[in-house]
Known about the structure:
CATH architecture of the domain at 18-179 in chain A: Up-down Bundle
CATH topology of the domain at 18-179 in chain A: Four Helix Bundle (Hemerythrin (Met), subunit A)
Structural class of chain B: mainly alpha
CATH class of the domain at 53-148 and 185-202 in chain B: Mainly Alpha
Shape of chain B: globular
Mean pLDDT of chain A: 89
Number of helices of chain A: 17
Strand content of chain A: under 5%
Low-confidence stretches of chain B: 211-222
Low-confidence stretches of chain A: 1-22, 478-495
CATH superfamily of the domain at 53-148 and 185-202 in chain B: Cytochrome c-like domain
Number of strands of chain A: 0
Largest interface: A-B, 86 and 76 residues
Helix content of chain A: over 70%
Oligomer: heterotetramer
Radius of gyration of chain A: 22 Å
CATH class of the domain at 18-179 in chain A: Mainly Alpha
Order of helices and strands of chain B: HEEHHHHEEHH
Order of helices and strands of chain A: HHHHHHHHHHHHHHHHH
Mean pLDDT of chain B: 87
Distance between the termini of chain A: 27 Å
Structural class of chain A: mainly alpha
Amino acid sequence: MSSPSKTFSALMPGDLPEDSSKRALLAEIDASCRVPVLFFVVSGLLWLLAGTALALVTSIKLHSPGFLASWEFLTFGRVRPAHLNTVIYGFASQTGIGVTLWLMCRLCRVPFVAPGLATVAALFWNIGLTVGVVGILMGDSTSIEWLEMPRYATPILFVSYALVAVWAVITFRLRQERQLYVSQWYLLAALLWFPWLYATAQIMLLIDPARGVVQAAVNWWFAHNVLGLWFTPIGLAAIYYFIPKVIGRPIHSYYLSVLGFWSLALFYNWNGLHHLTGGPMPAWMITVSIVASVMMLIPVTTVAINHHLTMWGHFEKLRHSPTLRFVVLGAVCYTATSLQGVANSFRGISEVVHFTHHTIAHAHLGLYGFFTMVMFGSLYYIVPRITQREWPSLGLISIHFWGCFLGLVLYVAPLSLGGILQGLAMNDASVPFMKVVEGTLPWLQIRTLAGLLLALGHVAFVANLVWLLARVFGPYRKPVVAILTGIETPAIAGK
Amino acid sequence: MRYGPLLFLGILFTLASSWVGLVLMPNRQLGSLVANSSTNATGAIVLYPQARSGEAQQGAEHYRSLGCIYCHSQQIRPDGFGSDIARGWGKRRTVARDYVYDKPVMLGTSRTGPDLTNIGERQSDYAWHYAHLYDPQITSKGSLMPPYPFLFQKRKMGQGGPSPDALKLAGEFSVGEGWEVVPKPAARQLVEYLRSLKTSFDLPEAPLPKAAEVTDAQPPAK
Amino acid sequence: MDRGEATDVTAMHAAIVRERPDPVEGHEPLNLWVVVFIAGLLFWAGSYLTQYSGGFRSDEFSEAQINPAPPPVEAGGGADDPAAKAAKEGAIVFSTYCAACHQADGNGVAGQFPPLAGSEWVLADGPNRMVRIVLNGLKGPIKVKGGDYNNQMNAFRDSMDDRQIANVLTYVRNSWGNKASPVTAAEVVAIRTAEAARTGEWTAEELEKIPASGGTAEPAAVGTLTPEALKEALKKLSPDDLKALLQDVSK
Amino acid sequence: MNVLAILMIGGVLAVPAVGLWALHWASCNGEFRLIDRAALLPFDEEEPVGQPTDLILNRHSPTT
Lengths: 495, 222, 251, 64
């Protein structure tokens, strides 16, 4: 977190180029977003690197249990939750908030309100997160999935989050544009839903634990809604903004957007308990969640149709816009992972894939394939605008994209298949359990390979960003025209 | 849509619905569940489940802290749904009442390792658990479970030979002449917890397989 | 960036040209099929919900309509063939209680847990010793298939009933290349009652003294209490002691 | 217990009622008039409809 905070002194809206003063509102808004948005984004990406490292350790441990086994704080049961919390609350949430802030400012047509407030929030978020992750590694993990951070860390996070929500409401009240774009509904919903989810889970699981399996119900109501009501809305908001923006064409049907939003709001929050199928829960709770999961077909199909018809006739732009590449890939993964989720929620299928690595693959298709890709795409669009600098290396962009794309395919496809085979073997009592375990080995090894590809992509992206930020210190250059018209620039020559 | 209020209202009501349905309702239905008391064959009152002994409870804390939950589940699915019962992981499906004293409830969502709901009954041998925790390869070759050497202490053997609870390590695992490996308190507590995991008790909502079914199938006579 | 893109004339015009034939973006009305699709889903939701919610009771855990539970394992297996049932249950009991130490392949772990496959103890012509080991456990040094073992096996007299012990031993005596006579619940019952007084694990030497097969071993050898032995013992008592004893027992 | 049940039922009836009222109020206030106008919100005079942005990769390619 130190490198960004050092960066900011050089980032104050003083060193804006002369000619940009001609630019009206947009330039002003973008410039006003600099410090807070960059703070969230850069610290988010630093957590991404940390999370990637932890992920690799976790993945290797899963097929070579002896790896780093002699240190208690690096045992599998601690590194895994540490990885989950770093990427969820460190990378995904912070980057998501950064993108949210920028989108809100742009769509409300107001320059960033109280940048100080948001920056302080980011600061606290990172402090709370560091405390929490160290706590997990030190053995204070709560072993409540998606809520492993110990009790003494979460209040800090909550305070910092409250600041963000307050900021969002202020901005919303001050908006100059009365009309609300679909992205704004999603963003507002996410910003209001998350504190509710988080507070409920904290109170009923950590502060005053409910009795018995009620904890399990609350746990999965929360865990699934973090995906469905926090990350998904932010991701969809970005897709709804960037696809039309990049191809220069409005969303296909606004009515479909309305339908998609309200059906998601109505059904997604009932999904959670399908994670407990066959478990010690009264039948009706499971059944309700299964029904809601199947109902998710409505928002998913409508959103998919809407995005596809918007892209129709513009697919060749995928070759030219990094933003579009990542965002469209994310949109495709959203459809895929949602349909997979619907299928997995049925009792007959859950009987096989539940408790297997298939679930892990599914979660990564959603949080990585969908959300993370959309966030990467958004950053490729946002960062040049708020820093007034172009991406220095197009080569690194390609490495980033192909690393992530191939890594994603290599991760999800084999592990999904492996999980199904694992489940089928496990449900056949005549197969000794050790045989089942041996069967999963190759898939777990492929997963580590995929992880390396993903790590490569992340490093390329962060390198590009650092390079870009480094230029912010130097004299202002005018690279954009040169790059767009294909004339060699120092950046391109330099790669 | 131009104005906020409708949006706010919708956002509020949608989440409120599932908050009531999946948080408040479960809490109302199961939030005050208590142990089941029954009389066994000898007419004595049997309470199940029972709160854990101090040692076992400390063991549960280690189980939580070491994240065992990420590979081991603690729930038995009903007979015919998966192979939980056919594999002998439990005699009956687990129900809400089995968990009334667990904080946190560690049902688990992964079976990279076997289910542990009933491990206390399946394997109650200290020596086995110690060896397995010290290095799973000793007892289960090819297991993907990490070894937990930090739960044990390697020390010089006393004059009186190995101490009673020292691990019997042979071959590739032996630690050399005059040395012995003994479990630290944490290991003992963890094993106490594992031994305390037993669910083979009758519950009205989840009875054990009836004795009648048990006795009808006689093995073939010689 | 904006300035740059503004100079990118070709792309801009190309795009604008594409826009012309498509003036009503954002105004597409809902497709009828979408509506029909949604109606269908809602109908399914209603029926599924009413059918499988167990009346929204807090103590109804199974949605039996979806997963009709097959008859319990004890009764399941090869139809009514008792041998098949026994074998099936034997395998399950083995994986439940035994496989952890003796391994699924019955080969045990060298130096730790003795093998069952091809073990002279298992293949003994009678089950007397094995049943005793399972009932009360075993500790101390023992030689199996030429290997030395010195570990502890705990008692299973409470966790397994007689039939389960019979079936698991039958399974062990006829798996991994083992071939030996099956064990009957009757034999287990006999030994269980004969050894009712026994507490603590057996040791190898103690077991060596017991004939592998045939009726229960002679009392003296293992301090068991058969009715005959009891009668003999009581005859030795003086009348008073006997009376006292009887009173003592009767209360 | 009974009180709680009554409250529940009351809530079940009240929530949709409020929802309907809100919808009515909204339509009276023209919430839904020209609802699809918002589809144009991402655009403005500087980045108007029809102008693609962010096309920075593979500029030498023949397709553009």
